[in-house]
Design brief:
The complex is a heterodimer. Chain A is about 30% helix and about 20% strand. By secondary structure, chain A is α+β, with helices and mostly antiparallel strands. Chain A has one domain. The longest helix of chain A has 16 residues. Chain A is globular, with a radius of gyration of 17 Å. Chain B contains 13 helices and twelve strands. In chain B, strands 1, 2, 4, 5, 6, 7, 8, 9, 11 and 12 form a ten-stranded mixed sheet that branches. In chain B, strand 4 and strand 5 form a beta hairpin. Classes of the chains: A alpha+beta, B alpha+beta.
Chain lengths: ~160, ~375
Amino acid sequence: MKASRFTWAVAALLMLATPGIAEEAAKRPSAKDKCPVCGMFVSKYPDWTATVAFQDGSVAWFDGAKDLFKFLVDPGRFVPGRKPADIRVVTVTDYYAVKPLDAREAYFVVGSDVFGPMGKELVPFGKRAEADEFLRDHRGKRVLRFNDVNRAVLDGLE
Amino acid sequence: MKRPRPPTWLERQRYLLDFTLSSLGRRKGKNLALAALYTLVVFALASVLLYTQALRSEAMRILEGAPDLVVQRVVAGRHDLIPGDRVERLSKIRGVQEARGRLWGYYYDASARANLTFLVPDRFWGKPGEVVIGEGVARTRLAVPGEPFPVLAADGEVVVLKVRETIPSFSELVSSDLVLLSEPDFRRLFGIPPGLFTDIALTVPNGKEVSTVAAKIRGQMPDTRPITRAEITRTYEAILDWRSGLVVLVLAAALLSFGIVAWDKASGLSADERREIGVLKAIGWDTSEVLAMKVWEGAVISLSAFLAGLLLAYFHVFVTPAPLLAPVLKGWSTIYPEFRLTPVLNPFIVSTLFLLTVVPYTVATVVPAWRAATTDPDEVMRS
């Protein structure tokens, strides 16, 4: 009895301490959520959904990693008043598993023949081996990490 | 004395409709025959459309639950059993979430004269020796839960299984002929050694990746044939379109003859009707009023025939087992346990039918009436 109460307490503490991917993964965009970068409805493209969760609990939805990165480069441009420091969790959708994934841990393939709702995309993967195989299968150019994506890379995807 | 208020537009139309109905009543036999013929044509067309639509939606409902990719082994151009070690190899292909070996097959039940589908579900909830049967099977074999269910095994012996329950069906086409059983029973009945499966079903979460996965399978296992869900859907669509096209072709002759009759009746006015128009004009009716009356006449006949035909077709397809169409459209019906279709009424089909029947008929009645109504009443009555 005591042990189970202790376990619950630990579980609750853990949930409070790591408000992270699992929590964000449970959320789904509603039919009204629009991508702040391109203005398209996000719920139509579950294979591509990317999210930014802010410190204040609000969430922004994107219809692909490309728009997510455009937002991250300059958040204030798309949502006035937002600063990079407000951002808590960033997720993208794993291409093979179609499940949310921590964007900071993900591998992105650019230059492939797979297009997202907004055209050329950064295709996200959870594992390096998956990214490499996708690159071979779909004639990708490069595998990038979260921090490699900058304005020059995004300009190359237009 | 106060002059009566002139009738509003709506009242005017009501009076016109009233007149039209009594005028139709004066030529009862002719109009009834026309309406009956009309109803028959709408009934035939609507039956075919409703029936194929219902079959199509049933098929799509089956396909919703179908795996993203099915891998069959092919030997000398024929389907063959696939070894179980392929399951492991297939699940390693990038993009595949899960691979499952499936066991299923057809069994000709001589006593019921029907083809049954035996299937080992992912997780069979009964014990070995038990079966769960579809409603069609239960009907044809008169089997209820607890009863024995004898089946002739591949080696000629009779294996007696027990009925555990019947499947509550959401779509009878899917589950009507189904017999679910455990894996050991299935292997015993059909003489399939352990380690072999009928085919392998793959789950590919990303729909865009299915064709890449299929291409990889073809490269890695040249003796297999990967079948995507899109291919199965296309095949179903093609078969249904072809079948309904065939029936419509047969009906085309009937449609054409109806068209001629309707055109003849609608476009040429009889001497009687010409005189009627002449009298109406002579007592002071406007051309527009004569036309409105004729539009109402066409609308009354075609609309009531349309509704009656549609209702009859609905009854024919969904309430009775569609005795006029089933043999052609269902195809395998002679050896398939009877099933009932889930009613579907597609607004697109109803409006198509409406536009093809009611609108042209109404228009065709107006043109000659307009011609008669614009000529001098004296001339109309004399001619």
